[in-house]
Design goal:
Length: about 160
């Protein structure tokens, strides 16, 4: 075998071995897998129709069974009607989202005709549990004035990570 053939064989062997070593080294490195968090959803819906002649209050509380690790987006859709009574002011519905007793968002809705309201609330860098939705309202059935019942329909959805 000539010197040129020996050098070429040596070079080819070196290239092959380098490829094998590189392949072995690449296989030894762990693959980095980044898991994207999967958003979770929770819901609560409530409907209430007032059936009393005089203005009365109604309240309800819903405690969410969820643990938020980073972000939360709250959506609520409200449909309501609170007719003007003979005496006093029209009724209302107030919706409040709290975390461990601290108010995160609170809105009050009223309309003498059927109305639709929407709210989107975003919170980031929020962790923990203890989220509570409080609904407080005042209304009547307006039988004394010949009107129709006050009512509200609330649909809530929370997406959280």
């Amino acid at each position: 075998m000539s010197l040129i053939q020996q050098v070429m064989a040596l070079l080819i062997t070196g290239v092959i071995l380098t490829g094998c070593i590189t392949t072995l080294m690449a296989d030894d490195e762990p693959e980095i897998v980044v898991e994207e968090p999967v958003p979770q959803w929770t819901y609560f819906n409530e409907t209430y129709v007032f059936n009393n002649a005089m203005a009365m209050g109604h309240a309800s509380t819903w405690e969410y069974n969820m643990t938020v690790n980073n972000t939360m987006t709250l959506y609520w859709d409200v449909q309501c009607r609170f007719e003007e009574p003979l005496f006093g002011e029209a009724g209302y519905v107030n919706i409040t989202l709290e975390r461990d007793g601290d108010v995160l968002v609170s809105e009050e809705y009223t309309s003498t005709e059927t109305a639709f309201f929407n709210l989107t609330f975003n919170a980031s860098n929020i962790t923990g549990d203890g989220f509570t939705l409080r609904i407080q309202s005042v209304g009547s059935d307006h039988t004394l004035s010949g009107g129709v019942e006050d009512y509200y329909i609330i649909e809530t959805a929370i997406e959280y990570i």
